[in-house]
Amino acid sequence: MENAFSAMDSVISNFVSYVCEVATGRYAPSLGASGAIMTVLAAVCTKIPEGRLAIIFLPMLTFTSRNALKAINAVDTAGMILGWKFSDYAARFGRAPFGIWYVTYGHELIWKNREPLVKIWHEMRTNRPQKRGGSK
Hints:
Radius of gyration: 21 Å
Mean pLDDT: 78
Low-confidence stretches: none
């Protein structure tokens, strides 16, 4: 399940990144895990909005996960609009809504509809032809 989540996340973020690059005419290489971390962070912040977060080097400064998500999205929006080249802000901005969607609707939607696929898989595994010959 995690692999499907990561794959969908990557496809969506790359699409958003390319659309923004084509729309603005600013092309920059995109590398790193900040977008994947953003998806997970958006999912956790949506699931636990009153959770307390802190910056690793400033542990005395804490804030709610809801406020952290708003602040990160504001920085990503500013980065896209102002054309900052430090990071791929569009990819992260595209990944945050996916994390929010997955926690709100996607997880339940996918897990409720997996039963037919699992049944087909089990039928294929149990009804496969037996090997003939050789030792047991």
